[in-house]
Write a structure and sequence with these properties.
This protein is mainly α and 116 residues long. It is 47% helix and 5% strand. A two-stranded antiparallel sheet has the order 1-2. β1 and β2 form a beta hairpin. The radius of gyration is 16 Å and the shape is globular. The protein starts with a helix and ends with a helix. About 9% of the residues have low confidence.
Length: 116
């Protein structure tokens, strides 16, 4: 049943400019009022609206926005940050030399926003 609904939705919306997720799709936009992702210049990653849209499309999801503020060492937020930083370092190492060395690449901006 879910598969048929997803196929019908994809047919109606088209897959161009959409991000496929495990249960649904959300527009991969970085401009305008309905932006679900931040532009690279403002730190990359998802906006609060984008996270809310993803959670609506994927019931049961525990996706959260970036940990950007000051946190107590050992707290849940600090551990989320530490985990993200470790994962994103792996992404950074596997990217091309051009991306790795570009201070304005999406992965570098996201890591900066998370204070990695």
């Amino acid at each position: 049943m879910k598969s048929r609904l997803k196929d019908a939705y994809m047919k109606a919306c088209g897959s161009e400019g959409m991000m496929y997720s495990k249960g649904g799709t959300i527009p991969h936009t970085t401009k305008g009022a309905g932006a679900n992702y931040r532009p690279t210049k403002s730190g990359a990653g998802m906006t609060a609206k984008g996270v809310a849209a993803y959670r609506r499309a994927n019931p049961g999801s525990k996706l959260k926005t970036a940990v950007t503020g000051k946190v107590k060492p050992g707290s849940k937020s600090a551990n989320r940050r530490k985990s993200y930083c470790a994962r994103s370092l792996g992404q950074l190492k596997r990217s091309s030399a051009e991306t790795r060395n570009d201070p304005n690449s999406r992965i570098r901006q996201a890591r900066r926003r998370w204070k990695c």
